[in-house]
Amino acid sequence: MKFFIDDLPILFPYPRIYPEQYAYMCDLKKTLDAGGHCVLEMPSGTGKTVTLLSLIVAYQMHKPEHRKLIYCSRTMSEIEKALAELKALMKFRTDQLGYTEDFRALGLTSRKNLCLHPSVKREKSGTVVDARCRSLTAGFVKEKKERGEDVELCVYHDNLDLLEPHNLIPPGVFTLDGLLKYGEEHKQCPYFSARRMMPFCNVIIYSYHYLLDPKIAERVSKEFSKDCIVVFDEAHNIDNVCIESLSIDITEDSLRKATRGANNLERKITEMKSSDAEKLQNEYTKLVEGLREAEQAREEDQFISNPVLPDDLLKEAVPGNIRRAEHFIAFLKRFIEYLKTRMKVTHTISETPPSFLTHVKDLTYIERKPLRFCAERLTSLVRTLELINIEDYQPLQEVATFATLVATYEKGFLLILEPFESEAATVPNPILHFTCLDAAIAIKPVFDRFSSVIITSGTLSPLEMYPKMLQFNTVMQESYSITLARRSFLPMIVTRGSDQAQISSGFQIRNDPGVVRNYGNIVLDFSRITPDGVVVFFPSYLYMESIISMWQGMGILDSIWNYKLILVETPDAQESSLALETYRTACCNGRGAILFCVARGKVSEGIDFDHQYGRAVLCIGVPFQYTESRILKARLEFLRENYRIRENDFLSFDAMRHAAQCLGRVLRGKDDYGVMVLADRRFQKKRNQLPKWISQAMLESETNLSTDMAVATAKNFLRTMAQPFKSKDQEGISTWSLADLERHREKQVLEEERVRREALANGHGTNGHPAIVDEFDDDIDEDLMMLDAQ
Fold first, then answer.
1. Are β-strands 674-679 and 565-568 bridged in parallel, bridged antiparallel, or unpaired?
2. What pTM does this model have?
3. Which single residue of 255, 340, 366, 735 has CA 20 to 30 Å from 461?
């Protein structure tokens, strides 16, 4: 389909378009034209990815600037999906235009997923793959080979140096599999091909961390220009990603390993002094001169990048007391020993970075400034010593990262030292949390640096919370409703059991046998009436385990077995993958299955249960965070004091975005259908916090149901959905042809003209503001005085 938005020609790779897709494109274009940021909430299953890509690629190709698109998503499967959509779009554009555009698009993921080296790719751990890769590709390894030493190199990486730097990969869209296949055929490294080609690409698709985590962003994303368009897709959890990227946990075990790493480095320094003292002297000279090693060396060789944001880096020489390698190691060992003594506590301690630094200085005479340079100085030393097995130094890297962060940031961070893993534990296992409380810190450079940042997802309500939390201004905030030819999803709130007793996962009554039995009966009744797959979400693993064991004692699970196969998500990724595979098989072969999972787990975020895989989703209880967590309490206090966000408002917002994410799993297209059940009396007051497309579909009569009423309503709904439904029935209502789109635009033009005429008739300007009048008009002054008097 080809149509215009203003003067922009859009090529959309489907013969029909949804009304909400068109509205989404119009608002996206306004945002790009204005050169600002936006928050857009698009209903699940309405083709958000292809809509985004169609508009932005058209914008890139039409405008002379050819602004680069940086598309960030969360999981590997979503990155693959976006690349596949883009590939199909570009093929459609080629067919329509009659020529192939000069266009490159790549996806980037970790070395582990893109490695072709026969021995390295067999490794299971990403850290080990990174270390092995470095031992085969680092500059100093190549220098050794040139000197005639017997060292192994990676032939795939070496072949890249034989090619033109700007033409490692031909124009086109490469999926991750396509990149691997191309690398295999041409014997070149897919990972480094993608890294080196990023400045020459029109579209780059990768994980959030490549832009938000300073340790990675400094290496991967620093060369992008200001006019890039940045998209954060599935961005409902973006604040948590920002916080994780600047937080670090240190345990006693990691400190022991860090000490071992420091001792190994000391040995290596002694060895180098006796064999090649000149190298250490050269490094010292460079540090004295204030030359940044990071700028001089090839960035591909770096052990760790600086963990602080670019604006917070000190642009000066490394302090004198840590310039010599042996002095720096002694300094690090002293700091590690200090941390070990701090771990010997019997009660929880919370302190701010300035308080921690004062304590460090009083006890060890370690100044703040050398701590700020720890990460950078360690990187320089590791490179000078030409270390290969860098995974052995991972714990030491964590300590250096912590030192740099704690000495750089005063506000928005907190140190929490907990002597026990949990409240019930009796054996001490201390852990030091250096936690970021302010999500705005990590994302601020992105908003400052790029002119247009688009935050989008299916579950962002309430929209105003994100600009408030992340401290940015928007030119557009919009939530779209969903247009349907038939009512294809049924959201309901169940507040009572069949015995009319209130149901809730609230702490006071969650283990009450009556509440547990009522929840069990809801699951049993829905497993009896729903065909194929049912997905049940619980607030936490702990609650899921306790309620399932109680259901077993009540005989409820045995009854469910008669209708469905029961499968459970666990914290173990492999077990969950196997459960998911079995669940899908049971849904396809007619046995039917029920999947018990957790609202903040892997299943709730990245897995789609389209068609028979999810005919009903049940949310058992409101998925609040564990409110006794000290880290959460500290963050809530920070939000209240700095951004005027009340604790209850944030907790409620956080719970409802996860509940909405769970509900959205079952509706993956307009030809799909499913039942959405929110089983907790507290949902009744929170329904206005659900996304617009869910809350508008919920009738008033379905917000306070008992179990038997909900089952009767769902049975009637499923019977209606089972009737034949042709795609022709949607035409002109939930899907538009080009003719429908033209009619809609004509109506829009007429409506705008009518509003303009009315505004002029009422004495308003054409922009809707009152026409300018004499500022000394007596009548107006009298009116204002009357208002003041009131």
1. unpaired
2. 0.88
3. 735
